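step: validate -> pass
step: tokenize input -> pass
step: predict -> running
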Amino acid sequence: MEVHGSLNLIGYGLSAIGGGIGVGLVFAAYINGVARQPEAQRVLQPIAFLGLALTEALAILGLVFSFVIGA
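step: predict -> pass
step: emit ->
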């Protein structure tokens, strides 16, 4: 039996799962911090969005690498 294909999509799926977990952790920490100190919301919100952007950038890099390696 011969198998055709590549593991690129599995790699992208794993990077997407990692991005989802990362976003969940970032916003869980943000909500926890704002719940403890509501006056710190203005300071914590940009940090949370930066964490979101960096985490999603890693998932996008996983998608790009899956296409680059597959070519």
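step: describe -> The mean pLDDT is 86.
step: cleanup -> pass
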